[in-house]
Amino acid sequence: GLNVADLVSSLTSSDENPNNAACFLGSADASLPDDTKSGRVTYESKNATDMVRDGRLDHAEVLIVDPPRKGFDEVVLSALTDVKEGRGPKLIAYVSCGFDAFQRDCDALLESGKWKLDHAEGHLLFPGSDAIETLAYFV
Fold this sequence. Notes:
Strand order of the largest sheet: 3-4-6-5
Order of helices and strands: EHHEHEHEHEE
Protein backbone atom coordinates (compact mmCIF):
# COMPACT_ATOMS: atom_id res chain seq x y z
CA GLY A 1 0.00 0.00 0.00
CA LEU A 2 2.90 2.41 0.49
CA ASN A 3 3.18 2.93 -3.26
CA VAL A 4 -0.15 4.82 -3.21
CA ALA A 5 0.62 6.96 -0.14
CA ASP A 6 1.19 10.10 -2.19
CA LEU A 7 -2.13 9.61 -4.03
CA VAL A 8 -4.45 9.44 -1.01
CA SER A 9 -5.32 11.74 1.88
CA SER A 10 -4.53 8.98 4.40
CA LEU A 11 -3.33 5.40 4.34
CA THR A 12 -3.93 2.76 6.97
CA SER A 13 -2.36 -0.63 6.53
CA SER A 14 -3.15 -3.61 8.70
CA ASP A 15 -2.11 -7.20 9.21
CA GLU A 16 -2.59 -9.56 12.10
CA ASN A 17 1.13 -10.32 12.23
CA PRO A 18 2.53 -7.77 14.71
CA ASN A 19 6.05 -8.24 13.30
CA ASN A 20 4.98 -6.55 10.08
CA ALA A 21 4.55 -3.18 11.80
CA ALA A 22 8.29 -2.55 12.10
CA CYS A 23 8.84 -3.47 8.44
CA PHE A 24 5.98 -1.25 7.25
CA LEU A 25 6.99 1.74 9.36
CA GLY A 26 10.68 1.31 8.47
CA SER A 27 9.81 1.20 4.77
CA ALA A 28 7.61 4.28 5.15
CA ASP A 29 10.41 6.12 6.92
CA ALA A 30 12.96 5.19 4.28
CA SER A 31 10.85 5.80 1.19
CA LEU A 32 8.30 8.53 1.85
CA PRO A 33 8.88 12.26 2.17
CA ASP A 34 8.07 13.70 5.59
CA ASP A 35 5.00 15.58 4.35
CA THR A 36 3.51 12.34 2.98
CA LYS A 37 4.01 10.17 6.06
CA SER A 38 3.43 12.79 8.75
CA GLY A 39 0.20 11.62 10.41
CA ARG A 40 -1.19 10.31 7.13
CA VAL A 41 0.40 6.86 7.05
CA THR A 42 -0.46 4.45 9.86
CA TYR A 43 -0.23 0.76 10.62
CA GLU A 44 -2.50 -1.34 12.82
CA SER A 45 -1.68 -4.85 14.00
CA LYS A 46 -5.18 -6.20 13.40
CA ASN A 47 -6.75 -8.71 11.07
CA ALA A 48 -9.33 -7.64 8.48
CA THR A 49 -12.26 -8.85 10.56
CA ASP A 50 -11.23 -6.67 13.51
CA MET A 51 -10.73 -3.68 11.21
CA VAL A 52 -14.29 -4.15 9.86
CA ARG A 53 -15.72 -4.56 13.36
CA ASP A 54 -13.96 -1.34 14.40
CA GLY A 55 -15.79 0.51 11.60
CA ARG A 56 -12.67 1.19 9.55
CA LEU A 57 -14.39 0.13 6.32
CA ASP A 58 -17.00 2.88 6.64
CA HIS A 59 -14.50 5.66 5.92
CA ALA A 60 -12.29 3.93 3.37
CA GLU A 61 -12.38 5.21 -0.19
CA VAL A 62 -10.11 2.56 -1.68
CA LEU A 63 -9.58 -0.88 -0.24
CA ILE A 64 -6.49 -2.85 -1.23
CA VAL A 65 -6.81 -6.43 -0.01
CA ASP A 66 -4.54 -9.45 -0.14
CA PRO A 67 -6.44 -12.08 1.84
CA PRO A 68 -4.99 -15.47 2.75
CA ARG A 69 -5.61 -18.43 0.44
CA LYS A 70 -8.97 -19.04 2.09
CA GLY A 71 -10.21 -15.64 0.92
CA PHE A 72 -12.26 -13.18 2.93
CA ASP A 73 -13.59 -14.06 6.36
CA GLU A 74 -17.38 -14.10 6.45
CA VAL A 75 -17.49 -10.85 8.47
CA VAL A 76 -15.43 -9.01 5.84
CA LEU A 77 -17.34 -10.44 2.89
CA SER A 78 -20.65 -9.63 4.56
CA ALA A 79 -19.57 -6.05 5.21
CA LEU A 80 -18.49 -5.58 1.60
CA THR A 81 -21.67 -7.06 0.14
CA ASP A 82 -23.82 -4.93 2.46
CA VAL A 83 -22.13 -1.54 1.93
CA LYS A 84 -24.57 1.30 2.60
CA GLU A 85 -25.10 3.92 -0.11
CA GLY A 86 -22.58 6.75 0.24
CA ARG A 87 -20.42 4.86 2.76
CA GLY A 88 -17.45 2.59 2.42
CA PRO A 89 -14.97 2.04 -0.38
CA LYS A 90 -15.64 2.95 -3.99
CA LEU A 91 -12.89 0.67 -5.29
CA ILE A 92 -11.55 -2.69 -4.18
CA ALA A 93 -8.17 -3.82 -5.49
CA TYR A 94 -8.12 -7.54 -4.72
CA VAL A 95 -4.88 -9.55 -4.90
CA SER A 96 -5.39 -13.29 -4.59
CA CYS A 97 -3.08 -16.26 -4.40
CA GLY A 98 -5.98 -18.73 -4.05
CA PHE A 99 -8.14 -18.79 -7.17
CA ASP A 100 -10.96 -20.90 -5.70
CA ALA A 101 -11.39 -18.45 -2.81
CA PHE A 102 -11.12 -15.49 -5.20
CA GLN A 103 -13.85 -16.99 -7.38
CA ARG A 104 -16.11 -17.46 -4.34
CA ASP A 105 -15.47 -13.90 -3.10
CA CYS A 106 -15.88 -12.46 -6.60
CA ASP A 107 -19.21 -14.25 -7.07
CA ALA A 108 -20.47 -12.94 -3.72
CA LEU A 109 -19.41 -9.36 -4.51
CA LEU A 110 -21.05 -9.45 -7.93
CA GLU A 111 -24.22 -11.18 -6.73
CA SER A 112 -24.67 -8.48 -4.08
CA GLY A 113 -25.34 -5.97 -6.86
CA LYS A 114 -23.08 -3.46 -5.07
CA TRP A 115 -19.96 -4.24 -7.09
CA LYS A 116 -18.94 -4.70 -10.71
CA LEU A 117 -15.76 -6.40 -11.86
CA ASP A 118 -13.90 -3.67 -13.73
CA HIS A 119 -10.74 -5.57 -14.62
CA ALA A 120 -8.95 -8.82 -13.72
CA GLU A 121 -5.62 -10.28 -14.76
CA GLY A 122 -3.42 -13.21 -13.80
CA HIS A 123 0.26 -13.02 -12.97
CA LEU A 124 2.75 -15.85 -12.86
CA LEU A 125 5.11 -14.60 -10.14
CA PHE A 126 6.80 -17.92 -9.53
CA PRO A 127 7.96 -19.34 -12.88
CA GLY A 128 7.97 -23.12 -12.94
CA SER A 129 5.06 -23.35 -10.51
CA ASP A 130 1.34 -23.48 -11.16
CA ALA A 131 0.68 -20.63 -8.71
CA ILE A 132 -1.09 -17.72 -10.38
CA GLU A 133 -1.77 -14.47 -8.57
CA THR A 134 -5.01 -12.77 -9.55
CA LEU A 135 -5.35 -8.99 -9.49
CA ALA A 136 -8.91 -7.71 -9.78
CA TYR A 137 -10.55 -4.31 -9.51
CA PHE A 138 -14.14 -3.97 -8.31
CA VAL A 139 -16.05 -0.70 -8.63
